[in-house]
């Protein structure tokens, strides 16, 4: 039975999803039924695009669970006073988070923007929480 191009694509995608950082030996074993010249081309493409493949697969996995951060924009305002105090003099961060809803990373229509205004303490808490999340993710994917 001859495999169609679509079936080969699905099989290769499943191979990468199951273990995106496979060694070349494992890939050779799992794709062993194709001729050696094509296998070498696949391995060469994989080695060149390994990080891109890993990032796309991680994005797809994250998109399953909910909104995914696509981009952000920020600016700092210096507030000189308010209705309560004439001499407030406080820096505030305006942070715009551009989120794509799960599963639709390429469709701009499903993007939404979350706007945050943070003082120095709130910003430090946000940075601390994001650092903890990054540490957890990097430990989880190793």
Number of strands: 3
Helix share, percent: 40-55%
- N-to-C CA distance: 38 Å
Strand content: 15-25%
What's the story with the biggest beta sheet? 3 strands, antiparallel
**Element-level helix/strand string:** HHHEEEH
Q: Uncertain runs with pLDDT below 50, 5 residues or more? A: none
Number of helices: 4
Secondary-structure class: alpha+beta
Q: Order of strands in the sheet with the most strands?
A: 1-2-3
Q: What is the approximate shape?
A: elongated
Tally of domains: 2
Report the average pLDDT across residues: 77
Radius of gyration: 23 Å
Report what the structure shows.
The protein has 142 residues and is α+β, with helices and mostly antiparallel strands. The protein has two domains: 5-64; 66-140, no CATH class. The model has no long low-confidence stretch (mean pLDDT 77). The protein has helices at residues 5-18, 24-30, 36-65, 120-140, and strands spanning 68-79, 90-100, 111-118.
SSE layout and pairings?
Blueprint (H helix, E strand, L loop, with lengths): L4 H14 L5 H7 L5 H30 L2 E12 L10 E11 L10 E8 L1 H21 L2
Antiparallel strand pairs: 1-2, 2-3
InterPro entries: COMM
Pfam families: COMM_domain
Protein name: COMM domain-containing protein
């Amino acid at each position: 039975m001859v495999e169609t191009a679509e079936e080969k694509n699905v099989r290769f995608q499943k191979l990468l999803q199951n273990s995106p950082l496979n060694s070349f030996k494992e890939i050779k074993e799992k794709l062993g039924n194709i001729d050696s010249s094509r296998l070498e081309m696949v391995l060469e493409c994989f080695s060149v695009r390994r990080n891109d493949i890993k990032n796309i697969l991680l994005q797809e996995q994250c998109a399953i669970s909910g909104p995914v951060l696509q981009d952000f924009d920020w600016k700092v305002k210096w507030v000189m006073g308010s209705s309560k105090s004439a001499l407030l003099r406080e820096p505030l961060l305006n942070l715009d988070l551009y989120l794509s809803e799960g599963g639709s990373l390429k469709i701009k229509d499903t993007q939404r923007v979350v706007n945050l205004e943070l003082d120095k303490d709130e910003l430090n808490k946000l940075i601390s929480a994001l650092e903890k999340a990054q540490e957890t993710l990097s430990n989880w994917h190793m």
